[in-house]
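Handoff note, outgoing to incoming analyst
You'll be picking up this chain. Sequence as last confirmed:
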Amino acid sequence: MKHFLAISALFLHLSAYAQIQIPAITAVDTSAEITLDGLLFEESEGFSMITRKNGYGIRYIRFDSTLQMLSDYYPYLSSSTTDGFRTQDGGFVISGLKSFVDYTRVPSILKLDSAGHTQWQNYGQYAGTTHYGAGSCQTSDGGFALIGKRGVIGQYQSVTLAKFDAQGNHLWEKEYISEAPTATDVEQLPNGDLLILANHALPDTVSPSIWLIRVNSQGDSLSSFSLGKRYDKPSSLLVLPDGNSIVVTTENKSLPMEWFRQAIKVYKVTPDGQVLWENRYIYEDNDSSSLGGTAMRAHLTPDGGCIILGGIYGTEADTVGGHLYLLKLDASGNRQWETLLGTPDSDEAGDVLPLSKGGYVVSAITSELLSGSVYAYLALLSSDGTTAAETSVGPSLMEISPNPFEEVLSITLERHFAQGLLELMDVQGRVLLQQNLAGHNNYTFDTRNLSAGVYLLRISDGTSQETRRVVKR
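Most recent structure output, in case you need it:
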């Protein structure tokens, strides 16, 4: 596609949008709680978001269709989080990385039920000192595929592929050796083969770095091919019903001043590596502005196109204050619309979710430049990219450990409350136990007289309120 919608006109059109004020966060943020982008999933009542809380595991938050929070839950996960998707049974899979005390690492896969409760967790078996977890997918047999990068310092590096059955049992694992590879995504093709999106840095300075590996259902390599040029970075792999794929990347263009200028580069390829079309977005070769951008996440849309969320930078972007870039493409790669989102602070693109009723939800992680506080930013958009609503999610007011619990429910507050109530309720909202907040951080409830089941824990002090779901075994 040669036509390019002038970005300067887009910035002028969106200049009024830069005045939007993000709602204040009621919880005091004393640390950078949210350290990973918010993965988004559609729910019957709205949608949910999964983020990772540093040091505590992952945070699972449900919202209604107007961005109002419905619940906030912390499943346990002793590893980092890099990818996630909805499973065939209505639950979730979260993939990431597990680190051990001897500094070795393995890819991790966690299965949650539809309520966000942990069902099982397992790991790849090829450990390495420079291992990184990456993408995962569910296969047609109900099992799961998990990719990662394995590195043994001073020896070799490889992309790994592990296969698990529906119950999380490790079936087999293969590796594919190359020069300095990293693994990004894996998807199953309609014929049952798996396609891995990765990149590698070959010894020469001109070879393409985007690397796609096609393997059969047992992980045996069938073919591989490369796209782009050196230093390009893969972002997302989207498999179409006809077996072709959309490959979303960040193109790094080396300029005479010895710095990299980035753009979003998208390819449509056949399973055997034939490029059907390729397009660059954000700038063109003859564009002299400082504008650039990166691709973070992409999803297919019901009309056969795709929606891409990325970041944008440069003097032109800074004058507007929006650092998130949302791009809608049709099935042929033509730009349908583009828009800027975010706050005047530092935004890191999270996820974009096409909704079944039309429109999109976008998540991001935002750092306030002055205070250093970190929170999740959410925006609800119509099908043409117009912003309908936005909100922010700050740190939780309380930590609950363990959850699920047995007899004693222990609560640690994130800050001192001079007054207020801590209440344990049933799911109908009836108060069963309560305590007055007395200026300290640690509280317990003795629940030996309560039956096993789901309860609600609420904290309120007249200005802040939070309700969390807890489970007694």
